[in-house]
Amino acid sequence: MHPAPSVIFFSTFSGLGFGLLVFLGLGMPGSTGFSAFAFFTIAYLLAVGGLISSTFHLGHPERALKAFTQWRTSWLSREAWCAVAALVIMGIYGAGLVFFGQRWTLLGFLGAAASLGTVFTTSMIYGQLKTVPRWHSAYTPANFISLCLAGGALLSGQVIPAVVLLAIAGSIQVVTWFKGDSALANSGTDMATATGLGNIGSVRAFEPPHTGTNYLLREFVYVIGRKHGQKLRIIAILLMSVLPVIFLLVPFNHWIALLAVISHIAGVLTARWLFFAQAEHVVGLYYGKR
């Protein structure tokens, strides 16, 4: 898949924002007043900013509201409803903390569940796609949710949970890459099945279907060299999990904590870029790109 910046920013920052809302809904940290206002501002800037950035990838952004009408069949529609529910519920819950010094526990739990549900529905937009074997796996939602929780723990200042969740998220990311590398080969999809000509003999590409590029090649076929992919994976896992854990294990300092957050975000951005760049959509078989 072509790694469009808007989709990378959306999946990274909205995940962090909703992850922070999960912890705020669970009462971590237990802040009220201006301190709570600061945490909720960060969470909403990340979550809403990520959602807004995703609309730039739509062919017709003005039709975005139509996404709410297909909730029975569309994970995109379910994501939209979960996101609105999470933002509204957590907005009311946050108002209680900021303006009244009250923690409405039930609302917090409901908002945390809706926030986590938003990340899960986002992951299923990709996880449901049989045309991308690397994504069509239980590891995709596990990857999204583990990074959401790790980022939320980090942003909410929960040091011990953050260390544990960062280690878990890093491990799941490595397993996701390892399993994904063989997903296309194990799917049983090849040039013969892609063209539907396997019943008449061995199939190979005689020449490209087009002399130039087209929409399918631009959107669904992106080839990254194995060497570059491995280097970027090492960079991603170091920035995403290893360095933040090291930063959190040294004596606490606000600047060190900020470095941990910046490192984690940079690592997740790198991993998300790879998520799309290494997607291996089966349409690439038709064009002889796999």
Task: Describe the protein.
The chain is mainly alpha-helical. 68% of the residues lie in helices and 0% in strands. The chain has helices at residues 5-25, 33-54, 75-99, 105-127, 139-155, 159-180, 183-186, 191-195, 215-220, 226-249, 254-277, 283-286. Helix 1 (5-25) packs antiparallel against helix 4 and helix 1 (5-25) crosses helix 5 (139-155). It is globular and about 75 Å long. The model has no long low-confidence stretch (mean pLDDT 86).
Please indicate the percent range of residues in DSSP E strands (runs of 2 or more). under 5%
Which segments are poorly predicted (pLDDT under 50) over 5 or more consecutive residues? Answer: none
Cα-atom radius of gyration: 21 Å
What is the share of helical residues? 55-70%
Q: Class by helix and strand content? A: mainly alpha
For the record, give the distance between the C-alpha atoms at the N and C termini, rounded to a whole number: 13 Å
- The count of helical stretches stands at 12
**Overall pLDDT metric:** 86
